[in-house]
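Handout for the seminar on molecular recognition.
Each group receives one record of this type.
Step one: identify the two inputs.
Step two: read the structure output and locate the region that could contact calcium ion.
Step three: write two sentences on what you found, then compare them with the reference statements printed after the record.
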Amino acid sequence: MRVLLVEDDPSVAAGIIDGLGISFAVTHVPTGAQALATSLEGIDIILLDLGLPDMDGTDVCREIRKGSQTPIIVVSARGDEIDRVLSLEMGADDYVVKPFGMRELVARIRAVARRTAAAPAASEGSSETARTLHGLTIDTRAQRVELNGEEIHLTPKEFELVVYLSEDPGAVYRRQDILHDVWDTNWYGTSKTLDAHIAAIRKKLGSANWIESVRGVGFRFGGPS
Ligand code: CA
């Protein structure tokens, strides 16, 4: 597995490289600019520090997402909820707070890689890889969402959430089930993360009605109005 590690602290970087062991080939860069200059071709996962000397990690995350869907795990000493939510909004797939155990980090990497790999594989051979609801086409094979023919750019997590909620349009999905199924069971964030993703999806789709809130319960996939 090939990892791009963006970390300015040499001792933290050395610890991660050492801890990941031989099954991971790590490319290490210490700045945001170098991270953005690195080709992501063949990179399976990006481990991204937020406190970088030249730019904020959340900005690096957003820049990467403009051109790549490579999974990103933010690895940061900043455990504040605002940083977590912002990172996830910028397209990160998971968030690990320093100090962390290497076993935890490896488990997160494997979980994110599994989720990212599972989506296209699961639909292979299936005749129904795309569904259209009220002009919204969700193509799980191509990992694309189009609204009335216009592509909507979703982060990998937003895409997963849309796929999940649109499995059974109109059905109410409970918050805890969404967090369990779309995020991992070891996800320790609060449901504010979920709200941030829902808000981002609604904004991108141009209407809050696409995902209706069911007070005290969860969410239901709706339509444009
Ligand atoms: Ca740092």
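Reference statements: The pocket of calcium ion is lined by residues 8-9, 49, 51-52 (CB under 6 Å). The chain is about 40% helix and 20% strand.
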